[in-house]
Design brief:
With 306 residues, this protein is of the alpha/beta class. It has twelve helices and nine strands. It folds into two domains: 1-38, no CATH class; 45-302, 3-Layer(aba) Sandwich (Alkaline Phosphatase, subunit A), CATH 3.40.720. Helix 8 (146-160) packs parallel to helix 10.
């Protein structure tokens, strides 16, 4: 009864504050729960089912968003479609990094920008697990920008020469640091407890879809610009660029990326195959490994997960 009572109390508060909109806020958790329980996950493909030397994961990238900007980048020859195993990063990790893929994981260096690695991944399962978010997180931005992941992937490749590398970038996942990022109204003093993310605000009607789409696209360009540098400074015959999941912008009454959803906007992501050659045009920055004084919970809050 505890969860029901909490939901009821939260619903009353929402309705008092927001009227009809508050009624919608109260109904959404029930609706999502019903979707979780009634809709099958409907397939999907493990990342290890395909061949790659370097797998670049762009967190929360919709397929249609990626296709809008792909022609701007010479290293993207075409955009194929890939059915992800899940609609949220934590569960994407749980379903991809399993005992069934233990041998390939042992050959993989995972350069990871997403804080869910702390809950899900075990360093001993990989050739190397470099949790970049632990020491290069930018508390002013409320996320990990692309360059530390690029730098670390280059350095890991040059120094360790693993059979496989995964470079997991946080962009285009919100916050939209390539734009004004007004959605979260962040300040350094109160970051980590910064209210609703862009998807909550879009769902509530406090911002409009056109602006969100524009800023989401700019955040994608922000990380794709950095990929050019990565691909010029790493050797990999088979490079794949993909995403762990997409985002809903109102489809089926959903916003953001709730777990266990089968819908195309959340599960069908880009798949690009290209190559990379180390021309040694970039010297990666060295990052101190002293952990940034920000808890994992605060990091996840800033990304809108909590």
């Amino acid at each position: 009864m505890g969860k029901v009572t909490t939901w009821a109390n939260d619903s009353i508060v929402a309705i008092r504050k927001r009227g009809i909109r508050g009624l919608g806020d109260a109904a959404r958790p029930v609706y999502r729960k019903a979707l979780h329980q009634t809709l099958p996950l409907s397939g999907g493909e493990p990342i290890y089912a395909r061949e790659w030397d370097l797998l670049i994961v762009l967190d929360a990238c919709r397929l249609d968003l990626f296709r809008e900007v792909a022609h701007e980048y010479d290293y993207i020859p075409y955009v194929d479609e890939f059915r992800s195993l899940e609609s949220m990063t934590k569960h994407w990790m749980l379903r991809n990094f399993t005992p069934a893929h233990a041998n390939k994981m042992k050959e993989t260096a995972y350069v990871c920008g997403n804080p869910f690695s702390e809950e899900v991944l075990n360093a001993s399962d990989f050739a190397l697990l470099d949790e970049v978010w632990r020491y290069a997180w930018n508390s002013n931005l409320g996320t990990l920008p692309p360059r530390p992941v690029t730098d670390r992937a280059i350095k890991v490749a040059r120094e360790h020469e693993p059979a496989r590398i995964i470079a997991h970038y946080m962009q285009p996942h919100c916050p939209f640091i390539a734009s004004d990022n007004e959605y979260q109204q962040k300040s350094v003093e109160k970051w980590g407890s910064q209210g609703r993310d862009v998807w909550h605000q879009l769902e509530a009607g406090d911002t409009d879809r056109e602006k969100v789409w524009h800023d989401y696209r700019q955040n994608l360009r922000y990380v794709l610009d950095d990929l050019k540098l990565l691909l010029e400074n790493i050797d990999a015959n088979k490079v794949a660029i993909t995403s762990d999941h997409g985002n809903a912008l109102g489809e089926w009454g959903l916003y953001g990326h709730p777990i266990h959803m089968p819908f195309r906007c959340l599960r069908n992501v880009p798949w690009v195959e290209t190559t990379a050659e180390d021309a040694e045009t970039h010297v990666p920055r060295a990052y101190g490994k002293g952990e940034v004084e920000v808890s994992t919970q605060e990091r996840l809050e800033s990304l809108g997960y909590l």
